[in-house]
Amino acid sequence: MVKVREPRAKKESITSIEGSTRVEAKKQRRREGRDASRRRPPILSESEFLARREAVDRVMAIRQRSGTAQIAVLEDGMLVEHYVAIESQNSLIGNVYLGRVQNVLPSMEAAFVDIGKGRNAVLYAGEVDWTLRGDTNSPRRIENALKAGQAVLVQVTKDPVGHKGARLTSQISLPGRYLVYVPGGGTSGISRKLPDTERSRLKNVIKDLVPDDANVIIRTAAEGATEEELTRDVARLTARWDDIEKKSKNGQAPQLLYGEPDTAIKVVRDLFTEDFGKLVISGDDAWDMVEAYVRHVAPDLEDRLERYSGDGTDDGADLFADLRIDEQIAKALERKVWLPSGGSLVIDRTEAMTVVDVNTGKFTGAGGNLEQTVTKNNLEAAEEMVRQLRLRDIGGIIVIDFIDMVLEDNRDLVLRRLVECLGRDRTRHQVAEVTSLGLVQMTRKRVSTGLLEAFSENCEHCNGRGVVIKSEPVVDDRNSSNGSPSGPSGKGDRNDHGGRKDGAGRKGSGSGSKSGSKSKKSSNDAPPKDGAGPQTSGDEAQPGTTPAEPTALTQAGANP
């Protein structure tokens, strides 16, 4: 006799979670990420580490003029990261405040905290220090840890963006040159970008230097650091934390307890290591500040500093022009990015996510069949996509629509190339599996505004939407190039601002098709015919495309 189990009854009511939903979501993400963490690449050997360093020529350039500082990172002459700091718009990331809780919303598991910046910042339950609870046996709910009017020690993890206030955490961490100091002993670790022998040496050196009530995260910059240098870094950060604690006990909320240094110093502190061949600086104030800092904390790198002659204010040379950085920034501000072989990426940002479409354009392959052509185009797109993520500082959910490939081995090859290239990205990211529709999903931590926001402002007519709404139906009798109306409504190929639309969205019968479910891109998807062939994203910019001055602050997070 076989017993058939009755199907589980479907619940018609909402299921509740005991404790904090945000804390439970954090645990769930950790459980789901365990398999991915087991598949992490192995620690580099010494020879692999040196080979990887020598394979790329890295240069950092700083240009300071008219109250604005721009920091660029180049790899083999290609711009891969860009930071902007405006004196009147300093970043709040890393600052430590004694804030005052204004309101606690148990249903949203969040608290709004006044840090003295006008707009209240938000502290979510997942970032709360649960030792603040009066009864340690009580559930981990935010209303048990925070009350309105309570003073709380917080650190900014994300700048205000749009209508959203700054993001806070009560789990403080203080970054130094060689390590990140974590009071309370919450987190410890060591950079996986260091070779195995160096990791072992640093572990043995640091274990007796850190106080019992704290932990440290050793950074990649600690490579080759002596015990004396590490001791000074630990002592400096310990004294900084003692000063913060003293101010928090005697201070009146809201109050700034510790402010992060200038953007240029932060970038040099976090990025400038032995991997860079040189650091070129244009601007007297920037030179004095960076040179003094490097001489104090990393004297072994002082010989790699280079002062640029000419600040671009007259007919003299300009640093970013000489390195062709301005041209590459102008191309990074465009919607379409050309690949070396003639294909292209079309990048669109929405409120929920960033979507990327990969096109073959004029690329017809060099022998072989369609599968080989498509796979080669996708491999180029994967490499360029990672560069664009870093350069544009794109965060949140990202969906990449690669051209469909028939063979699973080729799909795995493209995904593997994407993950390998992401190894150079300092910002925290996670690549999910390919969806049933062939889309690659990934997430990247959004820390601040991106490159586009730094060099643009919303259109005063459409408010950034891209279309102008009319009160009556719009009739457009302009014909397309073949003399017949375009589309069933007779509208031509123009946008509502009067300019020609990009040809990336039109699909026809070109030679580079998406095999299977996608039609081919039309010949209009080809790069401009100026005699130089397809443009690459790091090649010469078109005349008149030099971007305007930055209008907002762009600052990446200082991840260890």
Secondary-structure blueprint:
Layout: H1 21-32, H2 34-38, H3 46-54, E1 58-65, E2 68-75, E3 78-86, E4 96-105, E5 110-114, E6 121-124, H4 142-145, E7 151-158, E8 167-169, E9 174-175, E10 179-183, E11 189-190, H5 196-206, E12 214-218, H6 227-250, E13 255-258, H7 263-271, E14 276-282, H8 284-297, E15 305-307, H9 319-322, H10 325-332, E16 336-338, E17 344-349, E18 353-359, H11 370-392, E19 396-401, H12 408-422, E20 429-434, E21 439-444, H13 451-454, E22 507-508, E23 520-521
Helix pairs in contact: 11-12
Overview of the molecule:
Helices cover 25% and strands 22% of the residues. With 560 residues, the protein is of the alpha+beta class. β11 (189-190), α5 (196-206) and β12 (214-218) form a beta-alpha-beta unit. α11 runs parallel beside α12 (408-422).
List keywords for this structure.
13 helices, alpha+beta, 560 residues, disordered C terminus
Structure in a nutshell:
The chain has 560 residues and is α+β, with helices and mostly antiparallel strands. The chain has helices at 21-32, 34-38, 46-54, 142-145, 196-206, 227-250, 263-271, 284-297, 319-322, 325-332, 370-392, 408-422, 451-454, and strands at residues 58-65, 68-75, 78-86, 96-105, 110-114, 121-124, 151-158, 167-169, 174-175, 179-183, 189-190, 214-218, 255-258, 276-282, 305-307, 336-338, 344-349, 353-359, 396-401, 429-434, 439-444, 507-508, 520-521.
